[in-house]
Structure formats: C-alpha cells, structure tokens
C-alpha cells in the first residue's frame, strides 16, 4: 500500500477495542506497512494532560459542556500535532477512539446537540474524517463487567443506562455511515475478532 490510511477503533468501555487496535498495528507492521498507533483522549503531551482532567474521578462535577470542549481541545492538538503529519508521510494511522466517541458519549448519552458537536468537530479536527472505523460492539453489561471497580475512571463509573445510550449512539452512527463503519461482534474471542478485522483490512488495502 502506498497511500496513507486513517483507521479508528470505537466501542463502549470494556469492549476490547484497545487490544484489537494493538493487534492490528502489529499485524500491519509485520506486513511491512508503516503504522502509527495512538489513542484518545491523549497522544501528545498537551492532549495527555487534558486526558488526566477528563478521566479523573475527582472531577465528577464537570459539566457536559465543559466535557465536550475538553475532548475536542485534546483532539485538536492530537490531530494537528500527530495524526495529520503522520498521514502526510504516507503512513497508516490507527487511533483508539476519535470523534465518533464524542457523538456517542456527549451526544447520545449526555444529550448535547449533535449539530453543535459537528460544528466544533469540523474545526477541532481540521475536518479530518477516518477512512475506516472499526466498531467493536458489545452489550454494556458485559463490557462494564470487565472493568475493575477500583480502577474505573470517571466515565467508566457512569450508570448502566448511560453506557447503554453510548452503545446505541455508536450503532446509530454505524447504520448511517455503512461505507466507513464496520461493526464487529465483541462477544467473539479476541482471536476471532482479530481475524474478522484482518479480512476487512485485506479487502480495504487491496482496493
């Protein structure tokens, strides 16, 4: 493959997307591709510092409006400092979460207007859109059961109903953008999900 490709992984807490992102990274490296793996919220130093604020259990009083703006601020630095330059080199970029998470968490679950989020999203991401989004879908009760309560961050500690709305938000987006989204069965084994991803990637890389 000689062109850049922006791949994002999405899903509820505990769905296994981070594991799959790392496995895809390793697979593509073995295939001889130049691949850059990153995550959100986070990435560059500034974005990681914003991540700490966002996920700290000490910030439970955070307003939804503050939350969405902080996520977008972290994403803007991440996109401008890391993602766009890597794509400009012709590399494959894999991000564990991107802006679809904001539409699911702050839009569907926090009920912030999607049109407003989209306006901010266009500005914050320099209107960058992922080429492929791999959604690892899993029932919220299974995903949350995989998270140790003592280690749960601010978002992970939200109610089951909150996480149900997040999942519904992701699935709704996937249904509206079938050319970009690929929905994976998160109840399969790690190896089975990885194999499904490889089939998708081999097809997409050979287009």
Short description:
By secondary structure, this protein is of the alpha/beta class.
CATH class: Alpha Beta
| Strand/helix succession | EHEHHEHHEHHEH
Radius of gyration, Cα only, in angstroms? 16 Å
Overall number of structural domains: 1
Give the strand order of the largest sheet, numbering strands 1, 2, ... along the chain.
2-3-1-4-5
The best one-word shape is: globular
Give the biggest sheet. 5 strands, parallel
The helix content is 40-55%
Overall mean pLDDT stands at 96
What's the number of helices?
8
CATH homologous superfamily - what is it?
P-loop containing nucleotide triphosphate hydrolases
Distance N terminus to C terminus?
10 Å
CATH topology: Rossmann fold
The tally of beta strands, per DSSP, is 5
Assign the CATH architecture. Answer: 3-Layer(aba) Sandwich
Classification by helices and strands: alpha/beta
Strand content: 5-15%
Low-confidence stretches: none
Characterization of this structure:
The termini are close together. The model has no long low-confidence stretch (mean pLDDT 96). The chain is 54% helix and 13% strand. It has a single domain (5-205), classed as P-loop containing nucleotide triphosphate hydrolases (Rossmann fold), CATH 3.40.50.300. The protein has 207 residues and is an alpha/beta fold. It is built from 8 helices and 5 strands; from the N terminus they run E-H-E-H-H-E-H-H-E-H-H-E-H. Strands 2-3-1-4-5 form a 5-stranded parallel β-sheet, sandwiched between helices. Helix 3 (64-88) runs parallel beside helix 5. It has helices at residues 17-30, 45-55, 64-88, 99-109, 114-124, 140-145, 160-176, 190-205; strands at 5-10, 35-39, 92-96, 132-137, 181-185.
């Amino acid at each position: 493959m000689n062109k850049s490709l922006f791949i994002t992984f999405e899903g509820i807490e505990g769905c296994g997307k981070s594991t799959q992102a790392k496995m895809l990274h390793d697979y593509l490296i073995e295939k001889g591709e130049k691949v850059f793996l990153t995550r959100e919220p986070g990435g560059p130093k500034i974005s990681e510092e914003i991540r700490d604020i966002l996920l700290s259990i000490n910030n439970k009083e955070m307003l939804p409006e503050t939350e969405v703006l902080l996520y977008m601020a972290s994403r803007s630095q991440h996109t401008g400092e890391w993602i766009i330059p890597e794509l400009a080199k012709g590399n494959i970029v894999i991000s564990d979460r991107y802006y679809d998470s904001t539409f699911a968490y702050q839009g569907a679950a926090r009920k912030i207007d999607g049109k407003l989020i989209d306006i901010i999203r266009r500005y914050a991401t320099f209107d960058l859109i992922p080429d492929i989004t791999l959604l690892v879908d899993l029932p919220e009760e299974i995903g949350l059961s995989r998270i140790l309560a003592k280690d749960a961050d601010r978002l992970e500690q939200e109610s089951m109903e909150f996480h149900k709305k997040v999942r519904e938000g992701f699935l709704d987006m996937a249904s509206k953008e079938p050319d970009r989204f690929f929905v994976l069965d998160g109840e399969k084994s790690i190896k089975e999900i990885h194999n499904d991803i490889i089939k998708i990637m081999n097809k997409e890389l050979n287009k």
